[in-house]
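Example 3.2
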Amino acid sequence: MKISDILRVKDNKFTIITFLLLFIIAFTLRLSIKEFSLASIIFSITNVLILYLFTDTIARTFLRIPLIVFLSSLITVDTTLMLVYNNPLNYGVIASIFETNISETLSMGKFIFPIGITVLILISYLIIKTTAEFKRRKQLKLYLTIPTFLILLFIVPPILDYQGSINSSNLKSYTKTFWKDPLLLYSNIIYVKYPLVINDIFVTISYFDEMKKYKNEILSDKVLPEGISLDKNNTNKPDKIIFVIGESSYSAHYSLYGYSIKTTPSLDSLYNNTNLLSFYKNIISSASYTRDALRIALSFATPHEEQPFINQKNILNLAKDAGYETSWISNHGKYGLHNTFLGMVASHADYKYYEDTNNDLDLIPLLQQQLKDSNKQQFITVHLRGSHKSYSDKFDKQDTQMLGSEGKTIDYDKSIHHTDRVLKKIVELTNDSCFKSVIYYFSDHGEVINTGHAILNKWKCQYQVPLVLIQNKPFLDTDNIIRKYYDSRNRINTNATPYILGEIMGYSITDSLVEKTKRDGLYIYQADGSVILFDNIVD
């Protein structure tokens, strides 16, 4: 096949149109990561050339149509993410896809499926027509195609990246990362160099490789971090701790936090009419998506340090050591009990219960059953479906009767109102004078309302979450515990969660460890694996 053959526009119009469209997509994805440069143009062209070499190879095979559908599906995913979020597919998104139950994925997908289906039909049509044009021409020689493909894919990117590391005096870090995890390093290179399709494949491979390592290491013995010790003489700790984890809950849409719509009437009433509720402002999550936000909040991992998740005790281990029976009640379905971060934590619970409904009120009977023995010390985690997209199935008629149906954010507001009703029910279950209880409520992350979360480098609302503590009788000075974790910016990162709950359960934390926790909390973990200062997030 000669270049002159390809340049005959009339005979190759779909080849040219498809190439230009894929170049625009690849170039736009690249620009969402890197600034405009000649390198961006060259790598975008090379990205598409690699896809064309693949397409030319499959054009004459009996698997042509299935492979075209596979290729078109990956292009559709990348294009849809670009159109909706202006980001390439990254590690966090891949992990969320594999670690989220089907019903939640479909619920989230309602928002992007119409765009995705339109793109899929268009891309599939163009590639089918392109391969038809390929079939009319002489096939590229495989002894040329395969070496070119391998060189462009496996040789050129790491060589250029290595050269860049030398020029940026970052060679030591580069070499260390290479020997520690070459696959992860290569995936990070491809993410920048070839974000269209090729990145999707390698980031998926990297995800399964990492989770295999976690699965192998998670069974290792766990220790307490240095600076934490259990005070066995502490008699002022709760008999019952209800640890409630919200979902996609943005604190600025709580009337408790000053929002103009009455989204949290029950919490408002408790705060205004009793001394049992305390809530805390300027709380930020460690990440803008569930997987890593809770990996950090439920263990001693930090945005910079992942190893403590493996070799140090998590929040359920702390509770067990402090004498609590532990239970895990979730409305996210039973999935990945040993293959996901959340499942790894939940696997340590004495009792596990899973629902998979959009109504968090369905969890109340399970919680009631667990609380029936008032003589036990219990630590019960309740993981809500909360306000995850789509919002329209996270509330019911009663929420609509209270808030109506007008306003751009009304569905989201009604989902917050529904969570308020769930918390009211939990409070009613703990109104037993026979035991002392604390309800600890926070959310995994916030939300860009009507858009979602896990968006890179912007929207602080993705990280701004509520923190509410409710006691059934005033026996514990929660302010004294929590306020010491406010950092130099007057914020608390949810990485402080195991320390705060540890103190509530009777653990002592050294001042130096508190200070370290506050310094770590200045940073957040992003869906592409980068760690940045929260202050660098753009509103």
